[in-house]
Write a structure and sequence with these properties.
By secondary structure, the chain is an all-alpha fold. The chain is 67% helix and 1% strand. It has 26 helices and two strands. It has helices at 19-26, 30-41, 45-52, 56-63, 72-81, 86-92, 123-127, 141-150, 157-166, 169-187, 194-211, 216-234, 239-262, 266-283, 287-297, 302-313, 322-338, 343-357, 360-363, 372-385, 389-401, 409-425, 429-446, 449-454, 456-462, 468-484; strands spanning 109-110, 116-118. It has a two-stranded antiparallel ribbon. Strand 1 (109-110) and strand 2 form a beta hairpin.
């Protein structure tokens, strides 16, 4: 017989469904998880330790509350060692194992009331099925945003869709608990609690992350519902929660303004801008206004766009918030480069320095998009507009190396559009057409007119070409631009 520590860990499946286990996973309280495993599965501290790579003494420290797990790789190791099922992994804030090749059964995605949001969407259909990936529009965006907001790692489009497709009614039930708590709180003397505030903050982060991958039309209704909930709670909120709720409302309102503009609803966009300004003042976070102005700059051109970015920079603190600082400097560099101003190179250098100091995944809800790949896209864009052939070559290779075909398609559209423009500048029409076609496909997939803006110069270059492939692409570009319009995305 094997020694105690070598015996395989077998945990009853129903243990992961127990309310106290769900609470422990939601709170990321590993000590509580270990206590429940010992209590209900009869597994000793030694066996738990062997399974998850800890000493018996370390397991004991966690179980007694003397130590806490905070590192993502440790959470992952524990989940693997305990053979945690995917619903439990997602409650803990980890991606489901389907991403590493362990499939889930096809399961319709539930809404908060338990009914299927789409009877046709399943794991197989998301990965290889006949429907388009944008079936994610059918998903309950509020639930999905909360889950995605909890994940520590970058979430690309395929990951997000697989998480959505992997949701089961059982997995969704703990996600709805905050709504049940919220209903009880609103009906009683205690209006809200810490869990509810954290839930709303996490969901705001999730909406910002989903915006990288999904069209505005897929998110707008869910985001406005989220803002309605925040609005209700702000009335009579205790002072200890009011500033946090106001900051969360401001971060959500900036995104709502961006999406409303993209959906050709300028009046609603302007209203959300006013909300974000009020929220910035109420919360004591003026940097929310920096995000609002940065988004607004995408809707403008030339000198007006540059001035809007510079207005945004006025809301930056003297120190800190380096991810937002880097983003604004990149935008300023792009606009300067478009106007042929060589100061663009200096602004780009400053942006790179700020990015080196930044912690995008820890600063603001809107800064999580700024990774090395997005910085590479900005670098390429600036050098292409400055017609700096030497820098374009290196920047192009760097940007292309960051492309993940399952990743941020709005960024992919921009990178491919700029690479195409660079190819046209050096006279390689065939390669330029190839990359421009890829850029157009990515822009169409996410309805991203931001990508189409970068294709504007490509369209001009194609106008003088007689090559059949170039003429066909030009026609597709014109048709798509007329269909999607020219607002930012």
């Amino acid at each position: 017989m094997p020694a105690d520590g070598a015996e395989p860990v077998v945990i009853p499946a129903d243990l992961w469904q127990r309310p106290e286990m769900r609470t422990a996973l939601t709170n990321r309280d590993i000590g509580h998880v270990f206590r429940l495993v010992r209590q209900y599965a009869g597994i000793s501290q030694t066996r738990i330790g062997v399974a998850v790579g800890f000493s018996q003494g370390k397991v004991s420290e966690y179980m007694q509350g003397k130590a806490q797990v905070t590192a993502l790789d440790v959470f992952e190791r524990i989940a693997e060692g305990l053979h945690m099922p995917d619903p439990a992994r997602m409650i803990l804030g980890l991606a489901p194992r389907i991403l590493t090749g362990v499939p889930l059964p096809p399961t319709p995605i539930p809404t908060r009331d338990g009914t299927p949001a789409s009877s046709l969407l399943s794991v197989e259909q998301v990965v290889i099925g006949s429907r388009q990936p944008d079936d994610a529009c059918d998903v309950d965006a509020l639930t999905l945003a909360w889950i995605v907001g909890r994940l520590d790692a970058h979430v690309n489009r395929r990951t997000m869709l697989l998480i959505a497709a992997g949701l089961t009614a059982e997995a969704a039930s703990p996600v709805t608990d905050p709504w049940e708590r919220l209903t009880r709180a609103l009906a009683g003397p205690q209006v809200l609690d810490e869990d509810t505030v954290e839930h709303l903050e996490t969901r705001t982060i999730g909406f910002h992350r989903l915006e990288y991958e999904l069209p505005a039309s897929a998110l707008y209704q869910g985001l406005t519902s989220h803002l309605n909930e925040l609005s209700s709670l702000l009335h009579g909120a205790p002072e200890r929660f009011r500033r946090r709720l106001a900051a969360t409302a401001g971060e959500a309102a900036t995104l709502a303004s961006w999406l409303a503009w993209d959906l050709k609803r300028p009046a609603q966009s302007a209203s959300f801008d006013r909300v974000s300004a009020l929220a910035a003042k109420e919360s004591g976070h003026p940097i929310i206004q920096a995000c609002t102005h940065a988004y607004r700059s995408y809707a403008r051109e030339g000198r007006a766009a540059l001035e809007t970015v510079r207005q945004a920079q006025q809301f930056l603190p003297a120190h800190g918030d380096d991810a937002t600082r880097a983003w604004l400097l990149c935008l300023e560099a792009e606009h300067l480069a478009t106007m042929g101003d060589r100061q663009a190179a200096e602004r780009l250098r400053q942006a790179e320095e700020a990015f080196d100091r930044a912690r995008p995944h820890r600063e603001r809800a809107w800064t999580r998009f700024l990774d090395a790949g997005r910085m590479a896209a900005f670098q390429l864009s600036v050098h292409v507009r400055l017609s700096d052939e030497q820098q374009v070559s290196a920047a192009g290779q760097h940007a292309l190396s960051s492309v993940d075909e399952d990743g941020d398609h709005k960024r992919i559209a921009v990178i491919y559009a700029d690479v195409a423009q660079a190819q046209f500048q050096i006279g390689d029409i065939s390669t330029g057409v190839t990359y421009a076609r890829r850029a157009l496909d990515a822009a169409q997939r996410t309805e991203s007119t931001w990508g189409l803006q970068h294709l504007g110069n490509v369209e001009k270059a194609l106008a003088s070409q007689q090559d059949p492939a170039a003429r066909e692409l030009l026609g597709d570009l014109i048709f798509t631009r007329r269909t999607l319009g020219s607002s930012p995305a």
